[in-house]
Amino acid sequence: MASWWEKITAWLTGNTAKETATAAVPLQGYASDLTYFQELFRHAPDFTVREFRLGVDGTKMAALYLRSLADEARIAAEVILPLSGITALVDPTPRGAGVNTVRNRLACGTITEVDTRDDALNRLLLGEAIVLTEGLKAALAVDARAYRGRSLTPPEIETTVFGPKLAFVEDCELNLSLVRQQIRTPALRIETFTLGKRNPRRLLMLYIDGLATEDTVTQLRSKLESIDVSGLLQTNYLTSLLGVTPWSPFPQAMQTERPDRVSGNLLEGRIALLLDGSPEALILPMGFSDLFQSPVDYYDHYLLTTLQRALRALAFLIATTLPALYVAIITYNYEVLPTDLLFAVATARAGIPFPPVIESVLMVVLVDILQEGTLRIPSKIGQTVGVVGGIVLGQAVILARLVSPLLVIVIAFSVICSFAAPDYRLVGLTRLLRYVLMVAAGAISGIGIGAVWTAILIHMASLEVLGVAYLRPFAPLRLSSLSDFVFRKPYHGLSSQTQRIQGE
Amino acid sequence: MHTRVCVTGFQHGMLIVGALIANGIFSLPRVAAEEAGRSAWVAVAGAGFAVLLVALLSNRLASLFPGEDPAGWSTKLMGPLLGRIWLLLYLVKSCFFTILTMRIFAAIITNRMLTHTPSTVFATIILVLSVLATLAGISGLARFAEVSVMLWLPLLTLLAVPLLGGHLYHLRPVFGDADISGFLAGAKAAAYSYAGFDILLFSYPHLQKPRESIRAVLWSVGLVTAVYTLTTVAGIAFFGLDHLTRLLVPTLVMLSIAETSVIERFDSLALFMWIGMVVVTSGTQLYMGTRLIQGLLPRASFKRTAVFLGSFLLIASWGETPLRELIALADLFGTFDLSFVTLSAVILLPLGLLAARGRRLG
Amino acid sequence: MKAKGLRLLALLVLSTLLSGCWDALPVERRAFVTALGVDWLPEPPHYNVTIVHPLMDERRARENRVLTIRANSVSEALTVWNHTNGQHLSLAVLGTLVIGEDAAKQALSPVINDLCSYPDLRLGAYVIVTRGTAQELLSVQPPAHQLIAVHLRSLLDRAIFRRDAPHSTISEFTTHMMTPGMDAITALVSPIGTLDRRQAGKQAAAAEPDGQQAGGGGGGGGGNGGEAAPQEDVQVIGAAIWQGDKVVETLTLPEAQFVYLAMGKANRLMVNVMFPPDERLFPKQSAMVLSMESVTANWSLEMVQEVPHYTLRLQVRLSLHNYAGDVDLSKKDNSALLEKMIGDVLRQNTLQAVQKVAATGGDPLRLGQLMRRQYPELWNSKEWRNKIQTAQFTVKAEAQIRNIGLELLRLEPVDK
């Protein structure tokens, strides 16, 4: 049964024909296979067939590859040149012997035997070269991929003052090497998956044997194996494909562009996913508390880190709840405020035409639109637009008596607090929750705020990611893990045990 | 039936705390003082001790049926007819408790804060949240209870602010006002506040380490008893006996008197956040009700049953009832609830032990 | 079915969330009663209720509106106000409940019951009694452009801090009113300068035949045509002793201070005490200011032939100001002598104050509660006031001078 994601993808691409599962077709033989691939790629000008003959007896061979993905020079040097020197195949008819002769002759590192057309096709599309040999019903796939991506650059989103300045790129092999540079242990396990029927992509699953829980690894492995999609472009598509509550707005997998962050999480027993073509790694399982952790936390003094984490949590609370509290207090629960402040607020609101909830929603919408606009404007004028929008508009609405000055302060503070989040997805979540809380507060006062937060807590309590509770280390409470949540112990106080992600 | 083992010992205790502490605490000082006078706090503590004993008996009963909650073992233990009758009575009790919990809190809000809004609005909100909590399953409910109790129970430390203006002489002489019958009446009056600990029968089968259950019961009931006792002490010390017995919800009044330079009234803020504790209580009762229905109708789907039960309870409890009547009803219900649970534990435990012995010998 | 159920649930949630706007009323549309005055009139309707609320208009943000309504009850007065004005009255930020002198001698419990029927009533509002009428007090235009209610509340805050006034909120007043064995004591205040000011205003008006009014509306104080009128203000002049819900006696400020001392609530209290001459310490009768740093007041009770004998043990640690003597107080003999003298003076004054209070039948010292605790078998909630009136009192006071200032001996010019 096609998943909802499949249906959307199919609808978007205009391809609504159902994929029918077909049995893998074995390789038929040199001529037949060659014709098949030529026919398949007749509209692909980068599809190259380099035919040559072996040595003296002239056994036909062909190297098939996609020029845009494979390194032609390597193919020439590592495949064609060495094979041209073979004088004869020893006993060519028994399939295994012939293939081994060819394999022994090749000068490249990664050689895989393929015996089906589908497998060969997938490897072609991954940039490997397929070597067909007349008389053999098996082919060899040679890893001769060319890297045509960008060079290593510093992270753009997760910047830090101290620490490594490298970010992932679109090539998962290169990304793997970045991780390898940090995790130098043979216990690092790498499992390869190919996802996408029409648009296959290679996915690497990384974990450290002995740290990652076996159950979690098994669960994730079986989920990855059961993914049935046409294609996969980015790692964040995986979160819904892996079945981690897709309809929840709470991020349930970490996305990062930093190799050091991946390494740190691997050492905590988590699992990382690297997808070819995507410069972000996905880390699972993730909890709500992980949204407040930043890579820089481990490069600063532990007291400073503790303060920063507390401030982030407080900022999140303020960002989501302060506008709603303003609405609730101004509309219903004014008795909470000290008397002098209450009079100042009431006086400031005199003459404002809108009820507090409308006033607040309008301001928040204005700020959000401004935010969206500045994201898409070229950076050179983005700052100007931000200043114009923020200051001028803000001043104008106060002078026009559309909103009260206190509300502008509340909204501005709330927006600033939302950007204190180390994970960008928390910013989006904050924006969403802010609206919900404001509407609830406008409808039924602070009880609405309490009710929404209760609903949020219930939702988070029900979330599990690969068998691990989303609310850990608070629920279930693990005091040892708390030493690395809000408080960060000095390094000598942090043991590997304190950080192990334990499934339930 | 494969029972998912997903509740830690701490969560087990927190479920008990969350199920116990909700609305009862608001009127507890008054209802206890009306009967037991100045020894009300001792009566409340005594009631806590009695509840602890019953809770331990219930825990022992639950331990006789590993992997099964009352929905599973009741008919096996009591026979199909008696078992079903017991399940039905239990179901009625849980439903009534859920209704009372949501209606009382809704009435408190409309009584103290939003006086023009129908209480049905808040009752609906609480019930919807309770259904959501139930749908999260026992693991989600346990986590929710754990976090809620840790977050909202410390609100009660706000009572320390008015307590600074209290006078301990109001509490003396401790045993001057009431005789033993008054003391017992005071303990009985606290029954509603102590109702709900039987959630342990339903969470026990899901414990990761069943041997932690006794400790969980001890500290959870002990904590609740301490909280209730201190609240009663605070009420008597602050208002004196004569004033206290004329206040409908003295704990809230105490919170409203607590003033600081930043926040002038704490009762509103406390009510905003206390809704979480109320939802834990009503959620646990709704969960129990759902499981009990599944005990009566084994093929019923858990999620559909929870939604159906929640909708049914909302419709069944539609209407406005004055808070004072609800509190009086709660006092009566509390006695019934504790009696039911105590009798069940006292009668079923020996039966269960016999059955277990029979199984071992067989 | 699942989708339908979810839709139904969502509809339910949405409808409840959107339906709760019955109580929505922004703050600027509410009138916050910051002070409430209650006066009694002999003819019905008996109550003169003065309502003070600030005007929530940014142009008139520093102005009060003071309105007096005659009604049969406080709630009737508030209802009349609601009906005749566009705003909704709120008692949530009530600062002070002012009871006029005459009203204080009537039963106040109807007023308290009236007010407690409002769920948003601020129970932390102070209860005070005023000389004259509450209406006059709340019409005072305080200095420095303050609002009378804010001024009154801050005045009381400072007085309570200094222990010149007792901390008596509506909640505490109610508890005292209802509990046998204790009575309330509230601050007694009085407006000052109002009569003079109004007199000056009338004179100025008479001197300006073209109708120019002297003095203005608004919240400012003082200043009008002709000679400058004395500044209006409010001051704490003593305390009112209640018996249940009626005032039975008023005390001057010095008397009230010694009552607070007897209650043990006199930390930071400064009392000006007259000392008799003593050849060893003072050449002549002198007044000195004693600043109480810490006070411990322990009451004990002994029944002697059914007559209560109350003993108060006072332990006071104080600072001395304006020492009039000329001996070296760093010498232990001298300081011990002075401390004994201070103890005697405190004892006498406190005993006088306690006896005066006991004679009224009011019990702010909670002597009845002590009897209830120590002699529960003799305790009778209906008879205790009579017993207090016939009680015997003994006061023992120990003083310890902690601080005498910078000098050991008086600083005098060299020529003297």
SSE topology sketch:
The complex is a heterotrimer of chains A (504), B (362) and C (416).
Chain A: H1 4-13, H2 30-40, E1 47-53, E2 60-66, H3 72-84, H4 95-105, E3 111-114, H5 117-125, E4 129-133, E5 139-142, H6 172-182, E6 188-195, E7 201-208, H7 214-225, H8 237-241, E8 254-256, H9 259-267, E9 271-275, E10 281-284, H10 302-331, H11 339-349, H12 356-376, H13 379-399, H14 405-418, H15 424-462, E11 464-465, E12 468-469, H16 479-482, H17 496-499
Antiparallel strand pairs in A: 1-2, 2-4, 3-5, 4-5, 6-7, 7-9, 8-10, 9-10, 11-12
Helix pairs in contact in A: 6-9, 10-14, 10-15, 12-13, 12-14, 12-15
Chain B: H1 9-20, H2 24-36, H3 40-63, H4 70-78, H5 80-112, H6 119-135, H7 137-152, H8 160-163, H9 180-189, H10 200-203, H11 213-244, H12 250-257, H13 266-296, H14 302-316, H15 323-361
Helix pairs in contact in B: 1-7, 1-11, 1-13, 2-3, 2-9, 2-11, 3-9, 3-11, 3-15, 4-5, 4-13, 5-6, 5-13, 5-15, 6-13, 6-14, 7-13, 12-13, 13-14
Chain C: H1 2-19, E1 30-32, E2 35-40, E3 47-54, E4 64-71, H2 74-84, E5 88-90, E6 96-100, H3 101-104, H4 109-116, E7 126-130, H5 134-138, H6 148-162, H7 170-178, E8 185-192, H8 194-207, E9 233-243, E10 246-252, H9 253-263, E11 270-275, E12 286-304, E13 307-321, H10 332-360, H11 367-374, H12 384-389, E14 392-403
Parallel strand pairs in C: 1-5, 2-6, 6-7, 7-8, 13-14
Antiparallel strand pairs in C: 2-3, 3-4, 8-9, 9-10, 11-12, 12-13
Query: Average pLDDT value of chain B?
Result: 91
Total strand segments of chain C = 14
Query: What would CATH call the class of chain B?
Result: Mainly Alpha
Helix share bin of chain C = 25-40%
Tell me which CATH architecture of chain B applies here: Up-down Bundle
CATH superfamily of chain B: Amino acid/polyamine transporter I
- Percent range for helical residues of chain B? over 70%
At the fold tier of CATH, the topology name of chain B is Amino acid/polyamine transporter I
Strand content of chain C: 25-35%
Q: Give the class of chain C from helix and strand content and strand pairing.
A: alpha/beta
Assembly state here? heterotrimer
The stretches of 5 or more residues of chain B where confidence is low (pLDDT under 50) are none
**Which H/E pattern describes the elements of chain C?**
HEEEEHEEHHEHHHEHEEHEEEHHHE
- Distance separating the two termini of chain C: 106 Å
